[in-house]
Design brief:
This is Gfo/Idh/MocA family oxidoreductase. It comes from Hymenobacter lucidus. InterPro entries: Gfo/Idh/MocA-like_OxRdtase_C, Gfo/Idh/MocA-like_OxRdtase_N, Gfo/Idh/MocA_Oxidoreductases, NAD(P)-bd_dom_sf. The protein is an alpha/beta fold. The chain has two domains: about 160 residues, NAD(P)-binding Rossmann-like Domain (Rossmann fold, 3-Layer(aba) Sandwich); about 220 residues, 2-Layer Sandwich (Dihydrodipicolinate Reductase, domain 2), CATH 3.30.360.10. The protein has 17 helices and 15 strands. It has a nine-stranded mixed sheet with strand order 14-13-12-11-7-10-9-8-15. It has a six-stranded parallel sheet with strand order 3-2-1-4-5-6, sandwiched between helices. Helix 3 packs across helix 16 and helix 12 crosses helix 17. The longest helix has 20 residues. Bound molecules: nicotinamide-adenine-dinucleotide.
């Protein structure tokens, strides 16, 4: 029973009983949800560690933390201020701590192992996006979920921002009639975009490429907004800027002999938190968080274009560019009665305004500009709403934002299909990848 409910339902009764403070504390402690985490990096510790403890610390308790890097898991425990044991062996953690809920925040290509084993050990799963990185792993997750009866929740935080929620409402309102196509273009700048090429993400074997790691966020938004499943995908992609496309390179920024002339030089030691999480624990795994963006082993694309056809006949033109001077995106929904345009300027390079805009234009009609406040902390309050949906659900989900394994699968399958299409030069059908059958209306 949740602590609040426990207090509400038992408060009066307890006043007249002989329960001591200690017994009450024990009863309450026993009622908190037992949560474990695998992958105590930046995301795990922040979005799913500190924030969850702050907001739901009376309803959950961390019973175990696991990371392949023994230094990082010890750092994580200290940063979270929790008392639970730490592990480098996942099976040992699951056997010893028996969590009810497992949070998976490891490197993308390893998610499947922990999601599947986690359910087999009896836990429900909260996994960061992308749910996984190839179609075989995706199928294995779907089957394990069916077999174990446990559930997988995928943390698509992008769905929860007020601006995107408003777009969802407008599309459902019929103001632009039936949507027939969408144009979606996302720009990562030379800071944020470059960061993917510094880290483990630069290798397909870890991230599945940015078509999976990053674009799966965007593909999920499309699936959710358009309320249909993707049917076929065609992609183009190249590595034209980072990696081998430079005259000089080194291993990582700190010892680099080219730092004076490299515009991408970055001093990680100026960031105390990142230094504690990564630099101080390099000795255990040799991982450099400030890796050189020009390394020749980069094998992901840095510009991508994808055509998607949905089962409901909507067609989408999508692109992702990773070396823009500014950060943001633009999207247009073209309908039979009008058009919705929306755009976002991300914080890093723009002077922020306290709102994001949406323009609704009707055929032979008028143009209206809507301003959606964006000042609440954590993506306009979206992050908190997502965590509430997971850790204190009230059964309400008016915008159908809660994402399960099917949503996680369909988002990554578009990226996987695009990657395969780029490799083969042929369009790829989503139904050919796993046992999931795409539907005209999202189920
Ligand atoms: N939703 C979002 O907006 C968002 C933002 C950032 C990251 N993420 C996701 O969160 C996850 C973690 O990203 P991050 O930025 O924290 O990366 P990170 O490199 O900081 O953390 C990953 C951690 O996993 C550990 N790890 C790797 N392989 C492991 C294994 N086999 N067993 C145990 N631990 C292992 C690493 O040592 C590291 O501590 C990724 O899947 C990423 O896609 C999502």
């Amino acid at each position: 029973m949740l602590r609040r409910t426990f207090l509400q339902t038992t408060g009066t009764a307890l006043a007249g009983t002989l329960l001591t403070d200690n017994a009450l504390a024990a009863a309450l402690a026993g009622s908190r949800k037992r949560v474990a985490m695998v992958g105590t990096g930046h995301r795990g510790l922040g979005m799913w560690g500190t924030s969850v403890l702050k907001e739901f610390g009376d309803q959950i308790e961390f019973v175990g933390l696991c990371d392949i890097n023994p230094g990082r898991v010890a750092t994580g425990k200290k940063m979270l201020g929790v008392k639970c044991p730490t592990f480098t062996d996942f099976d040992q953690m699951m056997k010893q701590t028996k969590p009810e809920l497992l949070i998976v925040t490891t490197v993308d290509a390893t998610h499947d192992t922990f999601i599947i084993k986690g359910m087999e050990y009896g836990a429900d799963i909260v996994t960061e996006k992308p749910m996984t990185t190839d179609e075989q792993k995706c199928e294995a997750i779907l089957q394990a979920e069916r077999r174990t009866g446990k559930k997988v929740m995928v943390t698509f935080n992008y769905r929860y921002s007020p601006h995107r929620q408003k777009i969802y409402e407008l599309l459902r309102s019929g103001v632009i009639g039936d949507v027939t196509s969408a144009d979606f273009h996302w720009y990562l700048d030379v800071h944020h975009g470059a960061d993917y090429f510094r880290r483990w993400h630069r290798r397909r074997e870890n991230s599945g490429s940015l078509l999976v790691h990053k674009a799966s966020h965007h593909f999920d938004l499309l699936n959710w907004w358009l309320d249909s499943d993707p049917e076929s995908v065609y992609g183009n992609g190249q590595l034209n800027f980072y990696g081998k496309n430079n005259a000089f390179r080194h291993t990582h920024c700190r010892p680099c002999p080219h730092k004076d002339k490299c515009q991408f030089y970055w001093d990680i030691t100026k960031d105390e938190r990142l230094t504690k999480i990564y630099v101080d624990n390099e000795k255990y795994d040799g991982y450099h968080r400030d890796g050189c963006v020009w390394r020749e082993d980069v094998d992901i694309f840095d510009k991508m274009a994808v055509q998607i056809k949905y089962v409901n006949n909507v067609q989408v033109s999508y692109s992702l560019t990773t070396y823009s001077p500014y950060e943001g995106y633009r999207i247009s929904f073209n309908g039979t009665k009008g058009k919705i345009d929306a755009w976002i300027k991300e914080k890093q390079t723009w002077e922020m305004e306290p709102f994001d805009e949406i323009q609704v234009t009707t055929n032979f009609g008028k143009r209206e500009l809507l301003r959606i406040p964006n000042t609440e902390e954590g993506h306009g309050g979206g992050d908190v709403r997502l965590r509430k949906q997971i850790f204190a659900p009230d059964g309400q989900d008016p915008f159908r934002q809660a994402a399960r394994s099917r949503d996680g699968a369909l988002a990554v399958l578009i990226g996987i299909a695009a990657r395969k299409s780029i490799d083969s030069g042929q369009p790829v059908k989503i139904a050919d990848l796993t046992s999931l059958k795409p539907q005209a209306q999202r189920v």
